[in-house]
Structure formats: structure tokens, C-alpha cells
Write a structure and sequence with these properties.
Layout: E1 8-12, H1 17-28, E2 32-37, H2 40-52, E3 57-61, H3 67-81, E4 86-89, H4 105-133, E5 136-141, H5 154-174, E6 179-186, H6 192-200, H7 204-210, H8 220-231, E7 242-245
Parallel strand pairs: 1-2, 1-4, 2-3, 4-5, 5-6, 6-7
Helix pairs in contact: 1-8, 3-4, 4-5
The structure holds nicotinamide-adenine-dinucleotide.
Length: 252
């Protein structure tokens, strides 16, 4: 039997890239999907693709930096499918790389509002629904570079560190209530975001490859498998971990 048969799963930033890959694998495992995405076109397309493949899916247009929209996202899950069993918090707001003192205060606020506060809001309201249900699993998407320093990425890696900290502490807070909370640390993946960066910065991916022992960039599905496994009962005794799916990047 599929590992998530009949379960309700939510993915943020599900219109493209890693989020989209997660929705396909969750559907393969039998889950009903709540597709949360700020971009209406890609979000609706993602939901339609799941329905076309014979699974259930609903799209809810969501900006995760808005508390009202995150609460509406959760109401959509409950109204459509009766509750929530698993969530993959994947949405991210990117800006260009720049040294810390060149980041405007507005850019800092904008990225923190999505990448830190947005993840907090999703966790807050997902956890409330999971407590009602008697358990669940949350996977937050970090970045495989968490223990490195990278030029121009303080706005990004700072937020990812916050996500890891929130994941570990909330894992302790809710372990007794049957809610498992983990993180995935992806290495470089061929998502639209990386393709856009590679176009803007020729040589960007070659520089990455030097530091990846497997000498290749991942397909998003390879990282999605790790996130979906953490959602599944097979990971039933796993909580508070950061699972690297990075081709050995963290090994140096
Ligand atoms: N691509 C990589 O190489 C890489 C490497 C390490 C970690 N990651 C992480 O993987 C995750 C997915 O990255 P990706 O490359 O697929 O990115 P992407 O830009 O391709 O997709 C991100 C999605 O999030 C959506 N989004 C943006 N702001 C939102 C908001 N406020 N509310 C809701 N949705 C919003 C976008 O519309 C988009 O569909 C991110 O958390 C990213 O940090 C990516």
C-alpha cells in the first residue's frame, strides 16, 4: 500500500521547483493535496496536474507572509479534506546576492517576512490543526549550506538557520502530541530558481560542482523523496533532524 494513503498533505510554494516535485510524490503515495502558492497560474496548474493523474488536489492562493492568508490556507485544508496530516514548508523569497551592508532594510524585511515569519506562521497554524487531529508530520525546507559561509547570502542562510532552530525546538514542544517536525537540507537542484541564477551568473553551477562529491546537480525529485519519506510512517521515530540530500556537499 502507498505510504500516505488517504492522508492530507499541504505543500507551500508548490507551483514549481522542489514544491511541485513534492506534490507529485505525495500524490504517488496516496495523499490528497493542498497546493499553497502565491502565483495563481502555476498553483492552479499544479493542482490540475494532480487531478489529471487521478488524485485529489485543491489550490489555495497563499502568500505565506500574511497571517490571514495562512489561516485561510488551513481553513481550505479542513473544509476540503477534513484536516491536515503532513506539511512541507518549502516556499522561499529570493533576492540577488549582495554583501550584508548592501541589503536594504526593505529587502531584509521582505525576505524575513517570507522566509522566517512565513515559515513560522505556517508551522503555527499547521500545528494547531495537527493537535486537533492527534498527530502529524511537518518538514521544513532549509539549505544544504547551513554550516558554511557564502558570499552575498546572509539574508538567505540567516533565514535558513532560523528555520532549523524553529524546527528543532518545535520538535521538542510537540513530540508528546505525536507531531514530528524535521528539516531537509537540499543541495543544488535543477529548479527554475537555479536555472535563472545559472543564466544570470555563468560559471555558478560549475563552481558548485567542484564542492559536490557526486559531481552533479540534483533533480528536484531526488530531494523531494527525502521530504516525503520524513512525512511517512516509515519515519515514525524520526523527529528534530535535518536530513541532508546534497550529493555529499556538506562533506566538503
Ligand atoms: N534550487 C536549489 O538549488 C536549492 C538549494 C537549496 C535549498 N533550496 C530550497 O528549496 C526550496 C524550493 O526552492 P526552489 O529552487 O524550488 O525555488 P523556486 O523559486 O523554483 O520555487 C519557489 C516557489 O515558492 C513560491 N513563493 C515565493 N514566495 C511565496 C510566498 N510568499 N508565499 C507562497 N509561495 C511563495 C514561488 O512562487 C515558487 O513557486 C526553497 O526553500 C529553497 O530555499 C533550493
Amino acid at each position: 500500500m502507498a505510504s500516505l494513503e488517504g492522508k492530507v498533505a499541504l505543500v507551500t510554494g508548490a507551483g514549481r521547483g522542489l514544491g511541485l516535485a513534492c506534490t507529485k510524490l505525495l500524490a504517488r503515495e496516496g495523499a490528497k493535496l493542498v497546493i499553497a502558492e502565491i502565483d495563481e497560474q502555476t498553483g492552479e496548474q499544479a493542482a490540475q496536474a494532480i487531478r489529471d493523474s487521478g488524485s485529489e488536489a485543491v489550490f489555495v492562493r497563499t502568500d505565506i507572509s500574511s497571517s490571514a492568508e495562512v489561516q485561510a490556507m488551513m481553513r481550505c485544508a479542513i473544509d476540503s479534506f477534513g484536516g491536515l496530516d503532513c506539511a512541507i514548508n518549502n516556499a522561499v523569497r529570493f533576492i540577488d546576492r549582495k554583501p550584508l551592508a548592501d541589503i536594504s532594510e526593505q529587502e531584509w524585511a521582505d525576505t524575513c517576512n517570507v522566509n522566517i515569519s512565513g515559515t513560522f506562521l505556517c508551522m503555527k497554524y499547521e500545528i494547531q490543526a495537527m493537535v486537533e487531529r492527534g498527530g502529524g508530520a511537518i518538514v521544513n525546507i532549509g539549505s544544504g549550506r547551513e554550516n558554511t559561509g557564502q558570499a552575498g547570502l546572509s539574508w538567505y542562510l540567516g533565514a535558513k538557520q532560523a528555520i532549523y532552530g524553529m524546527s528543532r525546538c518545535a520538535a521538542v514542544d510537540y513530540a508528546e502530541q505525536g507531531i514530528r517536525i524535521n528539516a531537509v537540507a537540499p543541495g543544488a537542484m535543477w529548479t527554475p530558481a537555479l536555472r535563472e541564477t545559472a543564466e544570470k551568473r555563468p560559471g555558478h553551477t560549475d563552481a558548485h560542482l567542484e564542492h559536490i562529491p557526486m559531481r552533479r546537480i540534483a533533480e528536484p525529485e531526488e530531494v523531494a523523496e527525502a521530504a516525503v519519506w520524513l512525512c511517512s510512517p516509515a519515519a515514525g521515530y524520526v523527529t528534530g533532524v535535518t536530513l541532508s540530500a546534497d550529493g555529499g556537499y556538506t562533506l566538503g
